[in-house]
Amino acid sequence: HMMSTTNCLQYVDARTTPLLDHSAPFVARALRISNSLVVLHLENASLSGRPLMLLATALKMNMNLRELYLADNKLNSLQDSAQLGNLLKFNCYIQILDLRNNHVLDSGLAYICEGLKEQRKGLVTLVLWNNQLTHTGMAYMGVTLPHTQSLETLNLGHNPIGNEGVRNLKNGLISNRSVLRLG
Protein backbone atom coordinates (compact mmCIF):
# COMPACT_ATOMS: atom_id res chain seq x y z
CA HIS A 1 0.00 0.00 0.00
CA MET A 2 2.93 2.32 0.59
CA MET A 3 3.76 2.65 -3.12
CA SER A 4 0.23 3.59 -4.13
CA THR A 5 -0.16 6.33 -1.50
CA THR A 6 2.92 8.39 -2.31
CA ASN A 7 3.79 10.15 -5.53
CA CYS A 8 7.46 10.74 -4.84
CA LEU A 9 8.84 7.28 -3.98
CA GLN A 10 11.89 6.84 -6.20
CA TYR A 11 13.83 3.93 -4.69
CA VAL A 12 12.56 0.61 -3.36
CA ASP A 13 14.91 -1.95 -1.84
CA ALA A 14 13.02 -5.19 -1.21
CA ARG A 15 16.03 -7.52 -1.28
CA THR A 16 15.41 -10.85 0.44
CA THR A 17 11.70 -10.01 0.81
CA PRO A 18 9.77 -12.83 -0.87
CA LEU A 19 7.24 -11.62 -3.42
CA LEU A 20 4.79 -14.48 -3.15
CA ASP A 21 1.79 -15.38 -5.30
CA HIS A 22 -0.70 -13.67 -2.98
CA SER A 23 1.24 -10.39 -2.64
CA ALA A 24 2.58 -10.11 -6.21
CA PRO A 25 -0.67 -8.71 -7.71
CA PHE A 26 -0.65 -5.82 -5.23
CA VAL A 27 2.97 -4.94 -5.98
CA ALA A 28 2.31 -5.23 -9.72
CA ARG A 29 -0.68 -2.88 -9.45
CA ALA A 30 1.38 -0.35 -7.51
CA LEU A 31 4.12 -0.52 -10.16
CA ARG A 32 1.56 0.00 -12.92
CA ILE A 33 0.32 3.24 -11.38
CA SER A 34 3.66 4.46 -10.02
CA ASN A 35 4.93 7.52 -11.83
CA SER A 36 8.02 8.20 -9.73
CA LEU A 37 9.82 4.90 -9.02
CA VAL A 38 13.27 4.94 -10.63
CA VAL A 39 15.16 2.09 -8.88
CA LEU A 40 13.73 -1.30 -7.88
CA HIS A 41 15.81 -3.89 -6.00
CA LEU A 42 14.15 -7.31 -5.89
CA GLU A 43 17.19 -9.54 -5.40
CA ASN A 44 16.51 -12.91 -3.77
CA ALA A 45 12.75 -12.23 -3.69
CA SER A 46 11.44 -15.62 -4.91
CA LEU A 47 10.29 -14.07 -8.19
CA SER A 48 10.32 -17.08 -10.51
CA GLY A 49 6.99 -17.95 -12.12
CA ARG A 50 3.78 -15.99 -11.58
CA PRO A 51 5.32 -13.17 -9.48
CA LEU A 52 7.79 -12.36 -12.29
CA MET A 53 5.04 -12.58 -14.91
CA LEU A 54 2.95 -10.03 -12.98
CA LEU A 55 5.98 -7.79 -12.43
CA ALA A 56 7.06 -7.88 -16.08
CA THR A 57 3.52 -7.21 -17.30
CA ALA A 58 3.22 -4.23 -14.95
CA LEU A 59 6.56 -2.79 -16.06
CA LYS A 60 5.99 -3.10 -19.83
CA MET A 61 4.45 0.36 -20.04
CA ASN A 62 6.27 1.96 -17.09
CA MET A 63 8.19 4.96 -18.44
CA ASN A 64 9.96 5.94 -15.20
CA LEU A 65 11.79 2.87 -13.90
CA ARG A 66 15.47 3.04 -14.90
CA GLU A 67 17.13 0.33 -12.79
CA LEU A 68 15.79 -3.19 -12.22
CA TYR A 69 17.78 -5.61 -10.05
CA LEU A 70 16.56 -9.22 -10.19
CA ALA A 71 19.64 -11.19 -9.09
CA ASP A 72 19.45 -14.44 -7.10
CA ASN A 73 15.84 -15.29 -7.96
CA LYS A 74 16.33 -18.69 -9.64
CA LEU A 75 14.80 -17.21 -12.79
CA ASN A 76 14.49 -19.98 -15.36
CA SER A 77 15.27 -20.29 -19.03
CA LEU A 78 11.73 -20.68 -20.32
CA GLN A 79 8.81 -18.86 -18.72
CA ASP A 80 10.86 -16.30 -16.78
CA SER A 81 13.27 -15.47 -19.59
CA ALA A 82 10.36 -15.20 -22.04
CA GLN A 83 8.76 -12.62 -19.71
CA LEU A 84 12.02 -10.66 -19.52
CA GLY A 85 12.46 -10.75 -23.29
CA ASN A 86 8.91 -9.50 -23.71
CA LEU A 87 9.55 -6.74 -21.16
CA LEU A 88 12.58 -5.58 -23.16
CA LYS A 89 10.52 -5.53 -26.37
CA PHE A 90 8.03 -3.08 -24.89
CA ASN A 91 10.00 -1.06 -22.32
CA CYS A 92 12.85 1.06 -23.68
CA TYR A 93 13.20 3.12 -20.49
CA ILE A 94 14.95 0.57 -18.26
CA GLN A 95 18.67 1.35 -18.41
CA ILE A 96 20.08 -1.27 -16.03
CA LEU A 97 18.89 -4.88 -15.91
CA ASP A 98 20.77 -7.05 -13.42
CA LEU A 99 20.05 -10.77 -13.79
CA ARG A 100 23.16 -12.15 -12.09
CA ASN A 101 23.09 -15.54 -10.34
CA ASN A 102 19.97 -16.93 -12.00
CA HIS A 103 19.30 -19.91 -14.31
CA VAL A 104 18.76 -18.10 -17.61
CA LEU A 105 20.75 -20.69 -19.63
CA ASP A 106 21.27 -20.48 -23.40
CA SER A 107 17.60 -21.09 -24.21
CA GLY A 108 16.57 -18.22 -21.95
CA LEU A 109 19.20 -15.93 -23.43
CA ALA A 110 17.54 -16.48 -26.83
CA TYR A 111 14.35 -14.86 -25.45
CA ILE A 112 16.27 -12.00 -23.86
CA CYS A 113 18.16 -11.39 -27.11
CA GLU A 114 14.87 -11.19 -29.03
CA GLY A 115 13.82 -8.41 -26.67
CA LEU A 116 17.21 -6.71 -26.93
CA LYS A 117 16.92 -6.56 -30.72
CA GLU A 118 13.87 -4.30 -30.28
CA GLN A 119 15.76 -1.85 -28.05
CA ARG A 120 16.63 1.19 -30.14
CA LYS A 121 17.39 3.22 -27.03
CA GLY A 122 17.19 2.31 -23.41
CA LEU A 123 19.14 -0.57 -21.94
CA VAL A 124 22.67 0.59 -21.13
CA THR A 125 23.79 -2.20 -18.77
CA LEU A 126 22.93 -5.90 -18.89
CA VAL A 127 24.37 -8.14 -16.19
CA LEU A 128 24.22 -11.88 -16.98
CA TRP A 129 26.94 -12.95 -14.52
CA ASN A 130 26.69 -16.64 -13.53
CA ASN A 131 23.71 -17.84 -15.59
CA GLN A 132 25.22 -21.06 -17.01
CA LEU A 133 25.59 -19.49 -20.46
CA THR A 134 27.75 -21.36 -23.00
CA HIS A 135 29.03 -20.87 -26.55
CA THR A 136 25.49 -21.57 -27.79
CA GLY A 137 24.12 -18.56 -25.92
CA MET A 138 26.99 -16.42 -27.18
CA ALA A 139 25.85 -17.20 -30.74
CA TYR A 140 22.48 -15.59 -29.90
CA MET A 141 24.23 -12.63 -28.32
CA GLY A 142 26.61 -12.30 -31.27
CA VAL A 143 23.66 -12.00 -33.66
CA THR A 144 21.92 -9.50 -31.35
CA LEU A 145 24.81 -7.10 -30.68
CA PRO A 146 24.78 -5.38 -34.11
CA HIS A 147 21.15 -4.38 -33.42
CA THR A 148 21.76 -2.81 -29.99
CA GLN A 149 22.42 0.92 -30.07
CA SER A 150 22.43 1.85 -26.38
CA LEU A 151 24.05 -1.14 -24.64
CA GLU A 152 27.37 0.03 -23.16
CA THR A 153 28.08 -2.60 -20.49
CA LEU A 154 27.62 -6.34 -20.96
CA ASN A 155 28.67 -8.53 -18.04
CA LEU A 156 28.97 -12.19 -19.03
CA GLY A 157 31.40 -13.19 -16.28
CA HIS A 158 31.29 -16.55 -14.51
CA ASN A 159 29.70 -18.31 -17.48
CA PRO A 160 31.44 -21.24 -19.22
CA ILE A 161 31.46 -19.62 -22.67
CA GLY A 162 34.93 -20.90 -23.61
CA ASN A 163 36.92 -20.00 -26.70
CA GLU A 164 34.07 -20.96 -29.02
CA GLY A 165 31.79 -18.56 -27.15
CA VAL A 166 34.29 -15.74 -27.61
CA ARG A 167 34.43 -16.56 -31.34
CA ASN A 168 30.61 -16.47 -31.45
CA LEU A 169 30.64 -12.98 -29.90
CA LYS A 170 33.46 -11.60 -32.05
CA ASN A 171 31.59 -10.47 -35.18
CA GLY A 172 28.71 -9.06 -33.16
CA LEU A 173 31.12 -6.99 -31.09
CA ILE A 174 32.94 -5.77 -34.19
CA SER A 175 29.63 -4.64 -35.75
CA ASN A 176 28.37 -3.08 -32.52
CA ARG A 177 29.05 0.62 -31.96
CA SER A 178 27.80 1.03 -28.38
CA VAL A 179 29.42 -1.61 -26.12
CA LEU A 180 32.26 -0.02 -24.16
CA ARG A 181 32.66 -2.54 -21.32
CA LEU A 182 32.61 -6.33 -21.59
CA GLY A 183 33.02 -8.34 -18.42
From TrEMBL:
Highest taxon in the source lineage: Eukaryota
Pfam families the UniProt entry points to: LRR_1, LRR_6
Protein name, per record: Protein phosphatase 1 regulatory subunit 37
Keyword Repeat assigned: yes
The species this protein was found in: Micrurus paraensis
Family affiliation: Belongs to the PPP1R37 family.
Spans traversing the lipid bilayer: none
InterPro entries from the UniProt entry: Leu-rich_rpt, LRR_dom_sf, PP1-Reg/Actin-Interact_Protein
Alphabetically ordered keywords of this record: Leucine-rich repeat, Repeat
